[in-house]
């Protein structure tokens, strides 16, 4: 789960940040995002982002969760030294800035956190953050059939059960975020072993539900078949 906590003394700033966060999360599954509604205890792998006044910087009692703090300050004071000495501080916001600058800063913070947001633990709970246009979508790994590099677009196509996504990244970057059930069977293809229905040796095609398919190389075919035999 992704939690956001924002309770600042400056009411104007508080409203701007909350409005920006709600707008940013509009297209995201709200079962995965809670804004200023903290549970009594966090689960391992939960991510928390806190917007806290620099002059009232008491830490919330956060256990097990990954916690990132955004300090809001009125005067610069020794905030830069504070930034250098704490790995939990993510960025700072000057409350005297105009609304557009504040909204932009908040958007960058949330975007960076969501793009590295992957739940740990039970495979069925894990999600991949995919940025497309001005939205970030949280996609269940179980719903992903395969990833394919679209060379002429310089993007990765993610083929899923409900829809497809295109976003600018590399297969190498994606593979670092995937569980062991994903396998690279071609220099431009990563498949979800749990979703494969059949493999055609002659055509070198891998078939998935809903009549979706992707091509593999000759070498990739043999490596894939060996890997499938090892699957429980």
UniProtKB/TrEMBL annotation:
Species annotation: Brochothrix campestris FSL F6-1037
Task: Please name the Gene3D superfamilies in this protein's record.
Answer: LytTr DNA-binding domain
Residue stretches making up the HTH LytTR-type domain: 128-230
Q: What SMART domains would the database entry show?
A: LytTR
* An example Gene Ontology molecular-function term: phosphorelay response regulator activity
Pfam families (UniProt xref): LytTR
Protein name in UniProt? Two-component response regulator
